[in-house]
Design goal:
Number of domains: 1
Distance between the termini: 66 Å
Strand order of the largest sheet: 1-2-5-6
Structural class: alpha+beta
Order of helices and strands: HHEEEEEHEHH
Number of strands: 6
Largest sheet: 4 strands, antiparallel
Low-confidence stretches: none
Radius of gyration: 18 Å
Number of helices: 5
Strand content: 25-35%
Oligomer: single chain
Amino acid sequence: MGKGSRRSRRAAAGHPPLDTDRARGGFPVRQSGTDGEWMVRASGPGTKAYVCPGCGQEIPSGVASVVVWQADGLLGEDAAIAGRRHWHPACWRERSRRR
């Protein structure tokens, strides 16, 4: 049996290909603020437009954002994730100054 590259051995073993969009998004990080506990995940350029809750302006498709949901939501994790919102990264960092 010949030696192949590690990648070709994985493909032959039936491993799914890497989802690069998901990998670039990273893992959520817990952040604490005066407004509570939050889970924050970087989101690469998407295919959908969102409205930033910090400034009320559109985050157009193709522009990176951060996805935020409550880490300490009263209604549980599923409800918190369903209520997640996309923010401009700068708006998220400066949110405490807007209140």
